[in-house]
Amino acid sequence: MTIAAISTAKSPAGIGIVRLSGEEAISLACGFFQGKQSLDDPANDRKLLYGHIVSEGEVVDEVLAVAFRAPFSYTGEDMVEIQAHGSRIGLERILNCFISAGAEPAKRGEFTKIAFLNGKLDLTEAEAIIDMIEAESVSAQKQSARQLTGHLYRKIEGFRTRIKDTLAHLVADIDFSTEEVEPVDVSALITTCEAILAEMKALESTFTRGKLVQEGIATAIVGKPNVGKSSFLNKMLREDKAIVTDIPGTTRDVLEASYSLDGIHLRIQDTAGIRKTEDTIEQIGIERAMASMEEADLIIALFDASRPLEEEDMEIIERIKDKRVICLLNKQDLGSVLNKEAMEAYFPGAVIETSFIRDEGLAAVEDLIESWFLSGTIEEDEIQIYSLRHKLLLAEAVESLSKAVEDIRSGIGLDLAEVYVEDAFLKLGEITGQTAGEEVLDHVFSKFCIGK
Ligand code: GDP
Ligand code: ZN
């Protein structure tokens, strides 16, 4: 089978690329490519050739074309890439030439899936490709680049090799236990397993931070109407994205903006002011504000320091006091009746006095966020996991290996331990894809775009 797809974004662009992969890729392309040099001449392998795509005697576009012969291509199969003008219509016409000549339209992620099946990359590297494409901050992009270049793969493979070795010892002992074979050194086995376990747990614990780096910190700004929520967002973004007015209830829906703090991005949601209201539309906004608050990694709660707390403020405090909150006592320029120490009772170490009119307190907010989320900044070469799939499998592997250690230690019998060690081995293999079934692969590659 030969598959074909447009691999570039569909909007008008300088260039666009149509890709083909499979046994017939080169012959199909030759059917439409006309140039001084021929694509099917092996001497032109991996050379950009100038020419035209011609269909039924009509020039479709002026292009550059390149052939890659198996196994030296992205997918490991024969491939052709056609660089054409980035016109959606033009690219679709070129694609249709190949489809009408017998190529199959590629499914999501199919090129990468073939590459995976041909051993060009492991599953973590394949997943890193889609993460890199979707990265929204420099640190997220860097993180996926590390995974893309096999850092996580090698780490997991390292665990697998050592676990396999352990398994071999266990199996040997079980198979020959009745005969005159040297018994397994149980304490050495435990030491080895515990060492691997400690490293696996350390890797697992990088998930929280890794995920924050990849996805950004979901931040919700909450507070009564008119306390300065939209002003805060605008100050952080240094632009007028949120509408600031002095009519309470202006921000009726959730407004999302992205803001980068030392490479990590904050996905900030400016929510509707929370208050009792008869207005149905405003009520919907308030419900969304509540939902945004529930899902947030970080809440910025604002209070008008120039007025005493009201019932609505107390309700907000009640709802958020167990979450990660930075409390801002705003409008300090109007004089403060709210006591910072009293608020510290609800939000220890996280109360900041601000005045957006005077630009006061914003740096302190940034500092606090940095100290919470960027503290203990990881080494450039430390390997982090950020995918929930990896984290769950790693946790299962840790659990199985822990059980194995328990069993070996308690002397219950090594055959049960063997089952657990084997399970840990398989779970790790599911991360890298060695032992992943079709279902797992379909799930991973369905998140890709067409043409990748
Ligand atoms: P929101 O409803 O909570 O989003 O509040 P806004 O950001 O729309 O601000 C409401 C009003 O308060 C606007 O007129 C702002 O200019 C004003 N405001 C915001 N921050 C301050 C501040 O620190 N001091 C004073 N005096 N006014 C502020
Ligand atoms: Zn607002």
UniProtKB/TrEMBL annotation:
<dbReference type="InterPro" id="IPR018948">
    <property type="entry name" value="GTP-bd_TrmE_N"/>
</dbReference>
<feature type="binding site">
    <location>
        <position position="120"/>
    </location>
    <ligand>
        <name>(6S)-5-formyl-5,6,7,8-tetrahydrofolate</name>
    </ligand>
</feature>
<feature type="binding site">
    <location>
        <position position="245"/>
    </location>
    <ligand>
        <name>K(+)</name>
    </ligand>
</feature>
<keyword id="KW-0819">tRNA processing</keyword>
<dbReference type="InterPro" id="IPR027266">
    <property type="entry name" value="TrmE/GcvT-like"/>
</dbReference>
<keyword id="KW-0963">Cytoplasm</keyword>
<feature type="binding site">
    <location>
        <position position="247"/>
    </location>
    <ligand>
        <name>K(+)</name>
    </ligand>
</feature>
<feature type="binding site">
    <location>
        <begin position="226"/>
        <end position="231"/>
    </location>
    <ligand>
        <name>GTP</name>
    </ligand>
</feature>
<feature type="binding site">
    <location>
        <begin position="245"/>
        <end position="251"/>
    </location>
    <ligand>
        <name>GTP</name>
    </ligand>
</feature>
<dbReference type="Pfam" id="PF01926">
    <property type="entry name" value="MMR_HSR1"/>
</dbReference>
<dbReference type="Pfam" id="PF10396">
    <property type="entry name" value="TrmE_N"/>
</dbReference>
<keyword id="KW-0630">Potassium</keyword>
<feature type="binding site">
    <location>
        <position position="81"/>
    </location>
    <ligand>
        <name>(6S)-5-formyl-5,6,7,8-tetrahydrofolate</name>
    </ligand>
</feature>
<keyword id="KW-0547">Nucleotide-binding</keyword>
<comment type="function">
    <text>Exhibits a very high intrinsic GTPase hydrolysis rate. Involved in the addition of a carboxymethylaminomethyl (cmnm) group at the wobble position (U34) of certain tRNAs, forming tRNA-cmnm(5)s(2)U34.</text>
</comment>
<protein>
    <recommendedName>
        <fullName>tRNA modification GTPase MnmE</fullName>
        <ecNumber>3.6.-.-</ecNumber>
    </recommendedName>
</protein>
<feature type="domain" description="TrmE-type G">
    <location>
        <begin position="216"/>
        <end position="374"/>
    </location>
</feature>
<feature type="binding site">
    <location>
        <position position="226"/>
    </location>
    <ligand>
        <name>K(+)</name>
    </ligand>
</feature>
<feature type="binding site">
    <location>
        <position position="251"/>
    </location>
    <ligand>
        <name>Mg(2+)</name>
    </ligand>
</feature>
<dbReference type="InterPro" id="IPR005225">
    <property type="entry name" value="Small_GTP-bd"/>
</dbReference>
<keyword id="KW-0479">Metal-binding</keyword>
<dbReference type="InterPro" id="IPR025867">
    <property type="entry name" value="MnmE_helical"/>
</dbReference>
<feature type="binding site">
    <location>
        <begin position="270"/>
        <end position="273"/>
    </location>
    <ligand>
        <name>GTP</name>
    </ligand>
</feature>
<dbReference type="InterPro" id="IPR027417">
    <property type="entry name" value="P-loop_NTPase"/>
</dbReference>
<keyword id="KW-0342">GTP-binding</keyword>
<keyword id="KW-0460">Magnesium</keyword>
<dbReference type="InterPro" id="IPR004520">
    <property type="entry name" value="GTPase_MnmE"/>
</dbReference>
<dbReference type="InterPro" id="IPR031168">
    <property type="entry name" value="G_TrmE"/>
</dbReference>
<keyword id="KW-0378">Hydrolase</keyword>
<feature type="binding site">
    <location>
        <position position="230"/>
    </location>
    <ligand>
        <name>Mg(2+)</name>
    </ligand>
</feature>
<feature type="binding site">
    <location>
        <position position="19"/>
    </location>
    <ligand>
        <name>(6S)-5-formyl-5,6,7,8-tetrahydrofolate</name>
    </ligand>
</feature>
<dbReference type="Pfam" id="PF12631">
    <property type="entry name" value="MnmE_helical"/>
</dbReference>
<comment type="similarity">
    <text>Belongs to the TRAFAC class TrmE-Era-EngA-EngB-Septin-like GTPase superfamily. TrmE GTPase family.</text>
</comment>
<feature type="binding site">
    <location>
        <position position="452"/>
    </location>
    <ligand>
        <name>(6S)-5-formyl-5,6,7,8-tetrahydrofolate</name>
    </ligand>
</feature>
<dbReference type="InterPro" id="IPR027368">
    <property type="entry name" value="MnmE_dom2"/>
</dbReference>
<dbReference type="InterPro" id="IPR006073">
    <property type="entry name" value="GTP-bd"/>
</dbReference>
<feature type="binding site">
    <location>
        <position position="250"/>
    </location>
    <ligand>
        <name>K(+)</name>
    </ligand>
</feature>
<comment type="subunit">
    <text>Homodimer. Heterotetramer of two MnmE and two MnmG subunits.</text>
</comment>
